[in-house]
Specification:
Length: about 350
C-alpha cells in the first residue's frame, strides 16, 4: 500500500512539473499554429535595412553631380556675360573719345552738375605751371651746389653758380655737339655755348685761347675778343665759364681760378677783362689745360683755340687729363693758320671733340 501511495505522489509531482514548464514556455516563447510552444529565439542585434546597391549609389551621385554641373554652368555664363558687357562698354567709350564725330562722354563722381563746376580744393600739392610758349625757347634748370668744391659767390658779387654739372655732368651730356643752328656768333641759349660758330651743349665751359704775338696778324686778337664777349653774352645766366689765355705762360681772366656765372654783371666784367688781355711771345698751351682740367666740378666742354704750332707732347698729355677728368671733350679751333692743324685734329679725335679751321678775314 505504501508503494501505491508513493507512485501516486510521483505522478502528481510530474504533473505539477509539466504544468509549470508549459506555463513558463507559454510566457517566454511563441506558440505554433498547432498549439505547441516554440522555444524563444535568440535576439537579432543586426539592422534590418540592407546596404544600398551599386545602382542606387550611382543614381545618388549622378544626381549630385548633375546639380553641381548646373550651378557651375550658371556661374560661368553669368560671369562671361558680365565680362563681355564690360569690354563692349569700354570699346564704345574708347571709340567715342578717340574717333572723330563721336560725342564726348562726361563722367563725374559726387553731386550732380557739370564738370566745370567741380572745384580744385583738396586736389593735392600744386604742380608748376608750364608756359604755353615752351616751343619758343629752352627750359633752364638750376641747382645750387653743396660740398662740390665750386665757388659760392664770384668776385663780382654774383651767385657762384648753379652746379648741375657737379652731379656728374650737364643735363644734355658734356661736350656733345648740339643739334640745330642759327645761334650766330655766340649763344648757347639755355644749356649750351657757341664759340666761333662751334656749338657745344652743357652748362659749364672752359676757354683755352692763344694770345701769342702771332695773333696780332690780321687782327686775330681783335676777333678773338669779340667772339669771347659774344659767347658769354649769349649764354644762359645759369651757365658758368672760365677763360684762360696762354702764350709763354697761362693767365686766368678774373681774380680767382673758379667758375664764373654768366650773369649780366659778369658779362660786363668780361668786356673789360678781354680788353686788357696781355700778349706773349710763344705758344705753350699745356699750363692752361692743367688749370681747366684740374677744376672741380669739371667742365662739360673745352674750347681750345690757337693759330700756331705747339709741342707734340701736348696731344697725349691733354688726352690723359681729359680721361682722368671723366672724359671732357676738347673742341679744337685752328684760327688763321693751319700750322698746328694736325695736332689739333689728334686732340679732338682722342677726346671725342671736334676740329674746325677758321680762316683769317
Amino acid at each position: 500500500m505504501s508503494h501505491g501511495i508513493a507512485a501516486r505522489e510521483v505522478g502528481l509531482a510530474k504533473e505539477s512539473v509539466e504544468r509549470n514548464v508549459k506555463f513558463f514556455w507559454s510566457r517566454q516563447a511563441d506558440v505554433n499554429a498547432d498549439g505547441t510552444v516554440m522555444p524563444p529565439q535568440p535576439p537579432n542585434d543586426r539592422d534590418d535595412t540592407l546596404p544600398p546597391s551599386l545602382w542606387q549609389l550611382a543614381v545618388k551621385w549622378g544626381s549630385s553631380l548633375t546639380v553641381l554641373a548646373l550651378i557651375v554652368s550658371l556661374v560661368v555664363h553669368i560671369s562671361g556675360g558680365v565680362i563681355a558687357n564690360f569690354i563692349t562698354m569700354r570699346g564704345d567709350l574708347g571709340s567715342r573719345g578717340g574717333g572723330s564725330g563721336g560725342a564726348p562722354v562726361e563722367m563725374a563722381i559726387g553731386a550732380a552738375g557739370p564738370l566745370s563746376d567741380l572745384s580744385d580744393v583738396g586736389a593735392g600739392p600744386s604742380l608748376p605751371a608750364v608756359p604755353e610758349d615752351v616751343g619758343g625757347g629752352s627750359v633752364e634748370l638750376s641747382m645750387s651746389s653743396a660740398g662740390s668744391g665750386a665757388p659760392g659767390v664770384s668776385d663780382g658779387g654774383e651767385a657762384g653758380g648753379s652746379e648741375l654739372g657737379g652731379l656728374g655732368g650737364s643735363l644734355s651730356g658734356g661736350g656733345d655737339i648740339s643739334i640745330g643752328g642759327g645761334l650766330g656768333g655766340g649763344g648757347g641759349g639755355g644749356g649750351g655755348a657757341s664759340f666761333f660758330g662751334v656749338e657745344a651743349s652743357g652748362n659749364r665751359f672752359a676757354f683755352v685761347v692763344d694770345v701769342s704775338s702771332s695773333m696780332e696778324a690780321d687782327n686775330r686778337i681783335g676777333r678773338l675778343k669779340q667772339e669771347l664777349r659774344a659767347t658769354v653774352d649769349n649764354m644762359a645766366e645759369t651757365a658758368e665759364f672760365l677763360i684762360v689765355t696762354f702764350s709763354d705762360e697761362a693767365r686766368v681772366l678774373g681774380p680767382k681760378v673758379e667758375w664764373r656765372q654768366a650773369s649780366p654783371a659778369m658779362r660786363r666784367r668780361v668786356m673789360s677783362e678781354t680788353d686788357a688781355m696781355a700778349m706773349g711771345p710763344s705758344t705753350v698751351p699745356m699750363p692752361a689745360f692743367e688749370i681747366v682740367l684740374g677744376l672741380r666740378p669739371k667742365p662739360d666742354a673745352i674750347y681750345f683755340m690757337t693759330d700756331g704750332q705747339f709741342e707734340e707732347t701736348v696731344v697725349e698729355r691733354v688726352a690723359i687729363l681729359s680721361r682722368t677728368a671723366g672724359g671732357v671733350p676738347v673742341h679744337c679751333i685752328c684760327f688763321g693758320d693751319d700750322a698746328g692743324g694736325q695736332l689739333l685734329q689728334r686732340i679732338a679725335s682722342m677726346t671725342k671733340g671736334t676740329y674746325t679751321f677758321i680762316p683769317s678775314k
